[in-house]
Write the structure tokens for this entry.
Amino acid sequence: HIRSLSKFEDVRVEISSDGIAKITIARPAVHNAFRPLTLLELEHAFRYARDMPSIRAVILTGEGHRAFCSGGDQSARGHGGYVGDDGIPRLAVLDLHVMMRRLPKVVIAMVAGYAIGGGHILHMVCDLTIAADNARFGQTGPKVGSFDGGYGSSYMARIVGQKRAREIWFLCRQYDAKQALQMGLVNTVVPLEQLEIETVKWCREILEKSPTAIACLKAAMNADGDGHSGLSQLAGEATRLFYQSEEGKEGKNAFLEKRKPRFGSFVIEE
Ligand code: 1HA
């Protein structure tokens, strides 16, 4: 796993000793636009962050101070999707959104410069966003012949409200960090030179909190908008806790020992 992370071309993964994973999109020449390989590597990086118990918080960012991410690399856009080495057109970023929402750990977007198009949606699907004072936000879809009617639209409307979400998509304007803060699109704005310090400070405050409480809260807030998939995530947290209980273990043990389970002593306390 670790070796494959170090072989990445478009994404850098750094892990602090106290359990923060920093995932950086490293294509500064194109304002950190993502191509299919970038998305594949991001997917690996987020899976790694999910599976490593020592990782408790994730920072997603872009290399340099000019951009967080400018969305899909328009030069990789083919007929029906973005085309990588295998020649198959895909909209793989939609899978990445689901993965980031499902990650039972806090994901923080650390945004300097442009968070535009699909890059804007990436910061929105993060749990929190810390913005530098030079950050600029916006959608470009209707300008460049694209749109994201998934989280990019419906979740955006939950964050900023219907009128604002329609404005953002229909006019394709750019908004500065202060405007984004007023709209509730970001959690705080700090001077560029303090961006990383502030983001790590937020992470460390989260690291002091109960990981199970946070995982359940994230799942509960997702469930509100994610339908069956959201309920499945929330219920999955309940199952995870149940498996750790004596009652859950009795069921498994009885099956393996080929005997009837003895559930009689377990009572549901109100
Ligand atoms: O909508 C979706 C999807 C929907 C459903 C399912 C999947 C989806 C997947 C993706 C997307 C999208 O992301 S669509 C939206 C794609 N992104 C954009 O339309 C943004 C394009 N970029 C810009 O508008 C501007 O670059 C900028 C406002 C962010 C910054 O402008 P600025 O400061 O004038 O810089 P600029 O000169 O334009 O960019 C620097 C370099 O980066 C340029 O290259 P160069 O001329 O130096 O060779 C520029 O071409 C390149 N670049 C920037 N963004 C992209 C890009 N190259 C490819 N793709 C980009 N997105």
User: Anything to note?
Assistant: The CA atoms of residues 62 and 177 lie 16 Å apart.
